[in-house]
Amino acid sequence: MCRSSLISTDRNFAISPFQFFYKLIMTDRKTHWDSIHANKLNTEVSWYQAEPKRSIELICEFSTPDSRVIDVGGGQSFLVDGLLDLGYRNLTVLDVAQSAVDATRSRLGERADLVRWIVADVTQVAHLDPVEVWHDRAVFHFLTEEADRRNYVNLLKRSLLPGGHAIIGTFAIGGPLRCSGLEIRQYDALTLSAELGEQFRLTDSFEEDHQTPTGKTQRFFFAIFSRM
What we know:
The chain is α/β, with parallel strands linked by helices.
């Protein structure tokens, strides 16, 4: 029998309406970011940094070139370039957009083979190899659904080794309310600490202004957490 409904009523294959629409959101998220990266130069996106100095400084403060480091939402960021220049060789870049990963790999040329690339939605990843530094500049603030944030934090708990550090940058309180056509959540030390939970100890936090390619100022919040 031909069914017109998008949600199967077969008991063996049925998914709830919530599961169906959640999967639809995940698909739309990938499509959205693939389109952004495929249709814009990396110098045109609002988060562009020719040299991500702050992120590099923070990673170097809590690691050595032998440390295992992951950049979540690395996309077309130049962070991986800078870390390779400094001799880092245990690098992983995770991004939901295949177009972003392809562009960065092309830019790096042969050096791309020194990096592990993962194309995935961080909220849907079941397992990552253990890391000593988890870096995320501007992914977490896009997670407006509680289930997504819970999945992210659980993956962070599973992946970051005890004594390791999570460096997370989000829009600050009073910063933008939307980015790339999507709503975001703003954070400060109290609210981000509450999201991560008691297994993470806040060691430092600060705010910083970022200038977009169009000259706008965006207020960012950065926090460094130690994995207990």
